[in-house]
Structure formats: structure tokens, C-alpha cells
């Protein structure tokens, strides 16, 4: 990068969107460190048991079936094929850089989940699991995956030619649906609330860092 490009890169850090991404990234890191240390490593129950007690009051066969259907969208059986479709569409529309970036961020998020689970090795809740599950608990893989997916789709949606109201509404729906998938993991007793919060925080760190990297400087190839 030339001196002019370097100066433009540092000035880009002062733009509103980059500053928001930095704040979101740092806030997510702060919360993740707190959850990982105070709840997971120190084994303190700050809100997990209360979350389980809340959902136990609303546990019915109908709600359990609905939760299982919703939680499916946070798993690989849904996300992998959908990612392939999105990547193929971007590629055919000659948005090949976006296609490559989407594939790289999505794949890295799955690998990140596996690494963090093996680092913390937190056991699943001892309550009866209402869905088939395996592996360690923290952070929630479904939550990390669906929030990453929602974040990527929100970014792509926002950069379309659709009216602003439609884009904003779509982004809100995507975020709320991702939150709903996270809630189902607690309802189904396969994750603690802190697992879901941890998954959201890891996503915030990862996507925030990616946004800053890809939008800092004079990256003309990002088209």
C-alpha cells in the first residue's frame, strides 16, 4: 500500500461504520471474557438456572415441537446447503469477491466453534435434553452459526438496490430469527443461556473484525 493509501486507511478508521464495528467488536469481547471467566471457568450460576426455570413454565409438547423445528435452522443440515446457494448466486451475478468472502467467513465460523468448544470443554446441562445433541456446550454452535449467517445475510441485503425500509425490515427479521434460534437451544435444555450469549459474542467479535479488515483502506477489489 502506498503512503496515500495508508493515510486513507487510517482516515477510514474514523468513519462512522468502522467506529460502530470497533465498538461492537470490543463490547462483544468484553462480555465474552466475562462470561467465559465468571460463569464457565469459575462455574458460577449468574442466570443460567433462572433461564431454565422460566422456560420450564412454558414447556409443552406443542412448544417443544415448534422449538425443534426452529432450532433446525441453526444446524449444518440447513446452513451448509443455503450457504452454497447464496455463494452460487453471488458467483453467477459476478460478485465473486463477495462469494469468496462469504464462504471464507462462514467456514471459519464453523472451525472457530470447534476450536472454542475443545478449549473450554464445558459439559452440557444435566437436565433432560429435548433434542438430539452431542459434543461440548460452550459456546453454542447453533447460536454462533445462525448469528454469523444472519450477519452475512444482513450485510448482503443492505448492499442491494431494494428500498431502505425493505432492507431495514429484512435485517430486523434476520436478527430476531437468529435470537429465536438461540432461545430454542435453552428451551430444549441442550445449552445454558450463557452458551447462547457466548455464541452471540463470538459472532460479534468475528464479524466485527472481518468488517473492519475488509473496509479499512483502499480495497477497490471489494465490489
TrEMBL record:
Classification via InterPro entries: PAP2/HPO (IPR000326), PAP2/HPO_sf (IPR036938)
Using the record's annotation, list all stretches that form the Phosphatidic acid phosphatase type 2/haloperoxidase domain. Answer: 99-212
Q: Where are the transmembrane segments?
A: 12-36, 70-91, 98-116, 136-158, 165-190, 196-214
Record has Chloroplast as a keyword = no
Q: Does the keyword Transmembrane apply?
A: yes
* A Pfam family that the UniProt record links to this protein: PAP2
Q: Which domain of life is it from?
A: Bacteria
Descriptive protein name:
Phosphatase PAP2 family protein
Species of origin reads Filimonas zeae
Amino acid at each position: 500500500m502506498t503512503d496515500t493509501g495508508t493515510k486513507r486507511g487510517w482516515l477510514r478508521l474514523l468513519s462512522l461504520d468502522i467506529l460502530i464495528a470497533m465498538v461492537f467488536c470490543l463490547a462483544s469481547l468484553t462480555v465474552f471474557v466475562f462470561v467465559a471467566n465468571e460463569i464457565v471457568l469459575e462455574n458460577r450460576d449468574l442466570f443460567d438456572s433462572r433461564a431454565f426455570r422460566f422456560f420450564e413454565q412454558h414447556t409443552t409438547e406443542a412448544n417443544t415441537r415448534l422449538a425443534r423445528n426452529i432450532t433446525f435452522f441453526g444446524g449444518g443440515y440447513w446452513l451448509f446447503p443455503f450457504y452454497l446457494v447464496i455463494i452460487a448466486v453471488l458467483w453467477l451475478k459476478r460478485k465473486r469477491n463477495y462469494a469468496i468472502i462469504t464462504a471464507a467467513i462462514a467456514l471459519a465460523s464453523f472451525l472457530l466453534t470447534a476450536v472454542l468448544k475443545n478449549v473450554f470443554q464445558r459439559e452440557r446441562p444435566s437436565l433432560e435434553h429435548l433434542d438430539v445433541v452431542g459434543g461440548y456446550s460452550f459456546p453454542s454452535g447453533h447460536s454462533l452459526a445462525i448469528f454469523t449467517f444472519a450477519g452475512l445475510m444482513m450485510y448482503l441485503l443492505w448492499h442491494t438496490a431494494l428500498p431502505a425500509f425493505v432492507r431495514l425490515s429484512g435485517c430486523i427479521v434476520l436478527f430476531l430469527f437468529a435470537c429465536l434460534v438461540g432461545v430454542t437451544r435453552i428451551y430444549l435444555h441442550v445449552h445454558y443461556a450463557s452458551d447462547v450469549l457466548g455464541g452471540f459474542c463470538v459472532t460479534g467479535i468475528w464479524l466485527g473484525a472481518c468488517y473492519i479488515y475488509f473496509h479499512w483502506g483502499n480495497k477497490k477489489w471489494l465490489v
